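Homework help thread (please don't just give me the answer)

Our assignment gives two proteins as sequence + structure token strings and asks us to describe the second one. The first is just a warm-up. Here they are:
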Amino acid sequence: IVITLPTGAGKTVIFSCMAKMATGNSYTVLIITESKKLLTQSSAYFNNPVIINPEAKRDMSIEHGATYIAMAQTLVRRKKITEGFSRIENLIIIIDEVHIKTSCLPLSSITNGVRLGFTATPHAKHLKGLFGDLYNPTSVMELIYQKYLVRAESWVRKIVDTSKLHTKAGEYVESEQCEVFKVGYSGLVEDLNTIKYKKCLVFTSCIEHCNTVSDYLKEQGLKVCVVHSQLDELPLFYSDYDICISVGMLTKGFDYELIDLVILFRATKSVSLFLQMCGRGSRLSDGKTHFTIVDYGGNIQRHGLWEAEREWTLDFEQPKVKNNDEDVINSIGICECLACGFVSLEKFTVCPKCGEEKKAEVKEQLETEKVLWSDDKNPFDLDAVGLFRYANEQRRRNWAIGIAKRKGIDFLEEYAKAAGYSVGWVYRVMNNIY
């Protein structure tokens, strides 16, 4: 099973808890990661895990009932170790960041056991051949409503002409982005000087692009640090520097709750990368009510807003972005202010940010219906009757049913009564037969 949890939902906490329960019931657990950072992060949640690192013995024996944590690359090179796991009964294999193909390479040698893959974005060709089902227990909006994440305010900048970019191996060419995005430098400086933030993370397309942007911002008097595979100035970001320019190292396994501004100074064809970048600003912090996304690369028009509900499947296709009951591929009816660039799922004629009238347009001509429930009305605080009303007015029946189910069978029975559903329906929902 692939388990899909948004960035910030606590994947490591969840699968470490599952691993502890499994070893307590005589299972052997193998946790596979694809980076040293994630290896260290995962091992911190266990008392005495067996770490299989490059220095581990090549002929180490695999014991029943233990928890092993290994990098995928190490397992691929250690055939005797993978053979040891292949002989284990009651084996559970947990794969972190399963959408990355490297993470799954050991599965070609270890074919036994139960496979649990964890990711925020299961958009990858290799998953369908390795897993039989996908489970998506929550969403970004649900986590925001429950106050596990903060909401986002998104803005678009139409300075860069991304239509000039070509694609190679399914992604925009890095060298072309370095050149095309130069026209956005002055706008980037203006945003960094006018938007209020504590910590800002700017994503670029490659190391050359990262260094060039960093040099330009330093020339403008801004204190900037850089993080990529050849230079790691992250300690400066934790201390005196408020702006960090990066490429890909900070898109996963990086949790810094003070980040409240994410600037996408690049274009990407990957919905997974888009969501990973945006999610860096969603962590809770004292006094933090929201974070800001500024998109220079047309990514929001390409993939939808970060917080939009997406319907993931194991089939390799762009995830469906839900617009009420409509399913729209790649885009959603976002309302955009042509004066300041603010974008929202809700239609408006007067921009709620800059106050301009008749400056808003609805993309893709997908106008959302009038919102009957304000943003501050939390569906998790409603009684069963109120939740059923919410489900119908917002056309979010499946999500509301999920809320009712998590509140317990008594609440679900009240919900069924309000909806006119039978007792059999309650049984089917509680047992996932619907």
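The one we have to describe:
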Amino acid sequence: AINNNKLCRKSCVLVIGGGAVLDAVGYATSLAHRGINLIRMPTTTLSACDSGVAVKNGINRFGKKNFVGVFDPPYAVVNDLSLLSTLDDRHWRSGISEAIKVALVKDEPFFNYIESNAEELVDREVETMANVVATSAKLHLRHITEGGDPFERLEARPLDFGHWAAHKLEQLTNYELTHGEAVSIGLAIDLKCSVILEHLDEAVASRAITLLQAVGLPTSNLAIKDPALLDGIEEFREHLGGELTLLMLKSIGQPIDVHSLSNEIVQQAISELV
């Protein structure tokens, strides 16, 4: 379309859609003429909370999540909350998992806010969702701009807490799980792993898993018993490069990096969730 419509490098492309659409168009605009300005307008709670403000544009290849892609920040992002009214209940809830993720990693007061307003979020109160979207987007953006590693040249990737399993679950379910649902299950697995590794108190993990369930998100799926799920750990290491680095939790707002995660620990976590 960029070629057919003779867009030049000084043109601007406006993309309106969910995260996969934003990524696909962002990938195209980053390649055409070696870069055309992109304005993102997210239409889902998930993309508004998270990927809309990210610097990544990735597409799936070889059965792997985001195997092909680029780092290319958008020119601007417009979060128009009226677009969220078009979502069905499933996709309305889906983005809350990314908000809970960033709250667990970075902001205990934000976690408390989501917990206190879980019923309002399920009931689709727009003002409450607006607060969740805005806070989540700001926390993600702050990490990218102030975290010291916007293009992921280092080994740690804290914004991907719960994602090694999430990415593999999407593939194993043939993408019947939404990304947000897969992240919710991935969070539950890594919360349990954090407890088994003796970093996190069981009560805190149970509290977080209860919140995921309270906002209508899954914390288990038949696919978590598939032995191929464990391949997600090595695929995650390969995607980032270097030594395996996974984020676990010591408490809400206090992450810790680990550099190994045995199959036995993951299987114990899964058995407890099942």
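TA reply:
I won't write it for you, but here's a hint about the kind of observation we're looking for: The chain has a mean pLDDT of 93.
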